[in-house]
Design brief:
By secondary structure, this protein is of the alpha/beta class. The chain folds into 5 domains: 1-51, no CATH class; 147-291, P-loop containing nucleotide triphosphate hydrolases (Rossmann fold, 3-Layer(aba) Sandwich), CATH 3.40.50.300; 297-466, Rossmann fold; 482-653, no CATH class; 663-730, no CATH class. Strand 7, helix 10 and strand 8 form a beta-alpha-beta unit. The longest helix is centred in the C-terminal third of the chain and has 33 residues, at 595-627. The relative contact order is 0.07.
């Protein structure tokens, strides 16, 4: 008898080699690691005991023995449905050979896989589901140790009340939020990345709900932690990032988040990381989930640099292909190398949107016209999402140029991955492993091909040692100092501030005492900078190397974005568009940069720098002045801060007075800005915000805001046309 399942490591071919060692006469056959059972089915013993560590495998065999008629009926029905779907696909493919034709068996596979992963209710016996997945998965390889699936399984089984799930990027948070919210198994949780500060007295059940926060460490530190109550499960994804130097602001906040998880007595703390040797966590108690499996095989190809882009375009003409780059600049350089080799293939609707909202000279636009998609962290979220959707679902687009932004949390389906010849992060094994993991896809591309100009196969096999920066107590002392009342008191006395006010600053802005000291020292510096140009000096002085503006461009970037207009003699120029700001930058800056570099700088500036570096600095300065009017400020500092805030609000939010908005309205605006709807924000009104708010709970994510807009676009109302335009424009 042949085995009934495919199972990696089966012994069917080895039986002739060891058959001579099996006695002709025995009383009982025992096999503790059964798997596919090739030897058992060959011998067909009358008396046997079998077992396997794979519980689901043993459930299948048990149900096959005890419930065969029912399983047979279900499998026959599935086989008939499968064959009917294949026949429909074959007919449609014959009629449209050059087009991508939908195969309904793909939907069937993912639906049953969701049953297998306990994401939806089962419609079949567990043994039937196991057999189907086994037969349809590549080489019979069913994987159980995917970290996200493991966490989902834990939450579904253990049902923890309050959960915090920290992820490294907004893109990954967005994907996870959508995944959990679309799964009815988690419908009893309030899943959010933002939270309105409603007091408990206004909602007696506010703390009693099952809360599930998913977001970056920055967003976690922004929410009112009292809202969460006691945390039953605390998860940090990509926990290896704790090894980064905490002099980096993001790593610092991640370390603070980890320490917070320890301080609040979380019942379970899970750290997700690739398999590695870990150092520095000896004194902490936690669970570490490690994974280094490959769901598909990898094939490494070394190319000569002179042939690299020719091979890329050849493979990308028919197969899904990703070029992995260091930075947006390298993406731009890649375009320059291939622009003469490609034929234009223009997605006019998307092109026009980007030309109007951003700039026609943006390399992203030029590549899109050439049929090449891009993805990097310095572009709005709606552009990122559109690019990934086009790459995964549209057969007219086979090539994607991306950076680290696609190595974490982005669900891409690609056969080929090319590593740019000038890519310089090959020594970062964790990043490299994440990168090559993009190649191949279970169920579609059983083999992933990695092309490079250097041999990287051997590098990938090297063992990773992670020495966690959080073990360095000196580097993390800033966090602890900020919680030390005596040190806060000393800080208050030094700067002539009220003790309570100092504590409020620390709590509100989630900055350490060291950071606040840098800010106050910069504010009190008596440098003679007039007006708006005082701001980049303050930012650089306060944050030093953390301020991501390009050297020598800070003042121009700030002025170009924040100033409503500038005067030159009698001429007045309004800076209403990116094009206006690019023109202004080029005129004022002495640094030679192409339009793409300038645009990417603005993107980083608008979506990151302003929110995380400039506005806290501005607000701290204004709050100090308000509560302590006699406090010493440097020349023109207060005027500069006021000017910055008013012009930032004018340029970003039009006529809305952000300071006067409710917390709920502020969070809605913030969610829309996170998604990249900068042109829409100027047309918002409190009436519109009220309509969106009515579709939301007190806790919500960016996804919820987008869904609310989608819902409003589909229903009648005074602003339906406005919502419909947003939905169409940003592909909500």
């Amino acid at each position: 008898m042949n085995p009934v399942l495919k199972y990696r490591g089966g012994k069917s071919r080895e039986i002739p080699r060891f058959l001579q060692y099996i006695p002709d006469d025995f009383n009982r056959y025992i096999e503790p690691f059964f798997g596919g059972g090739a030897v058992y089915f060959y011998l067909e013993p009358e008396n046997a005991i079998i077992n396997d560590v794979n519980t689901r495998l043993m459930i299948f065999y048990r149900q096959l023995r005890d419930n065969y008629p029912e399983m047979r009926t279900q499998l026959d029905a599935l086989q008939q449905l499968y064959e009917e779907n294949q026949a429909i696909y074959a007919r449609e493919k014959a009629l449209h050979p050059d087009d991508r034709v939908e195969n309904m068996n793909e939907e069937l596979y993912y639906r049953i896989r969701s049953m297998f992963n306990n994401q939806i209710d089962r419609e079949y016996m567990e043994g039937t589901i196991y057999y189907f997945v086994n037969k349809t998965a590549y080489s019979g390889m069913i994987r159980y140790n995917r970290q996200t699936l493991l966490i989902k399984e834990y939450i579904y089984r253990q049902k923890p009340k309050n959960i915090v799930y920290i992820v490294p990027t907004n893109a990954l948070a967005y994907e996870l939020e959508r995944s959990f919210k679309e799964n009815e198994k988690f419908s009893d949780y309030t899943i959010f990345d933002k939270c309105s500060m409603v007091e408990q007295k206004e909602n007696e059940n506010f703390i009693e709900e099952k809360l599930f926060f998913i977001g970056t460490q920055e967003k976690y530190l922004e929410i009112n932690q009292n809202v969460m109550g006691e945390i039953d499960l605390f998860v940090i994804d990509e926990a290896y990032k704790l090894q980064e130097s905490v002099s980096n602001q993001r790593a610092y906040k991640l370390s603070e988040t980890f320490l917070d998880s320890m301080a609040i007595n979380s019942k379970k703390i899970f750290l997700l990381t690739p398999r590695a040797i870990l150092e520095g966590f000896d004194k902490y108690e936690f669970y570490m989930f490690k994974s280094d499996f490959n769901a598909v095989d990898k094939n490494y190809v070394v190319l000569e640099e002179k042939n690299f882009f020719n091979v890329l375009l050849e493979k990308g003409s028919k197969e899904k292909t990703i070029l992995f780059c260091n930075s947006p600049k390298q993406i731009n350089d890649g375009y320059e190398k291939i622009k003469d080799l490609i034929k234009n293939k223009e997605n006019m609707e998307f092109v026009r949107l980007l030309e109007n909202e951003i700039h026609p000279d943006w390399s992203v636009v030029k590549l899109l016209k050439a049929g090449i998609l891009t993805h990097h962290g310095q572009m709005p979220k709606y552009v990122q999402n559109r690019m990934i959707n086009l790459f995964n679902e549209n057969e007219n687009y086979h090539i994607l140029f991306g950076t680290n932004s696609i190595s974490e949390g982005i669900n891409t389906v690609t056969k080929n991955l090319f590593i740019h010849p000038e890519y310089n992060n090959l020594k970062d094994l964790l990043l490299l492993k994440n990168t090559i993991g993009r190649a191949g896809r279970l169920g579609r591309y059983p083999i992933g091909y990695i092309y490079s100009c250097t041999k990287i196969e051997e590098l990938v096999e090297n063992e990773i040692v992670i020495s966690l920066a959080i073990a360095n107590e000196e580097e993390l002392s800033e966090i602890e100092d900020s919680k030390d009342n005596e040190k806060v008191l000393q800080f208050s006395e030094k700067y002539n501030l009220d003790f309570d006010f100092s504590q409020q600053l620390i709590k509100t802005y989630k900055l350490s005492l060291t950071k606040l000291e840098k800010i106050l020292e910069a504010l009190s510096d008596d440098r003679k900078y007039p007006g708006i140009t005082n701001l980049p000096f303050i930012a650089n002085r306060a944050f030093k190397n953390e301020y991501p503006g390009l050297p020598g461009t800070d003042a121009v970037l700030i002025a170009g974005y924040l100033q409503a207009f500038y005067k030159e003699g009698t001429q007045k120029m309004y800076l209403n568009t990116f094009s206006d700001r690019i023109t202004y930058f080029k005129k004022k800056s002495k640094i030679s940069m192409d339009n793409t570099e300038i645009i990417n700088s603005y993107m980083q500036f608008i979506y990151s720098t302003l929110e995380y570096y400039i506005m806290p600095l501005v607000n701290i300065g204004l709050e100090v002045k308000k509560k302590h009017p006699n406090w010493h400020f440097g020349k023109n500092v207060v005027e500069s801060l006021d000017d910055c805030k008013s012009k930032y609000y004018t340029r970003t939010y039009g006529g809305l007075n952000i300071d006067d908005l409710s917390n709920e309205h502020k969070l809605i605006v913030s969610a829309m800005k996170d998604y990249g709807m900068t042109s829409v924000l100027k047309n918002l009104s409190e009436e519109i915000l009220d309509e969106i708010e009515k579709c939301l709970n007190v806790r919500y994510s960016t996804i919820d805001v987008l869904r609310a807009i989608n819902n409003l676009a589909q229903n009648t109302g005074i602003h339906k046309d406005f919502y419909s335009e947003i939905k169409k424009k940003y592909m909500i």
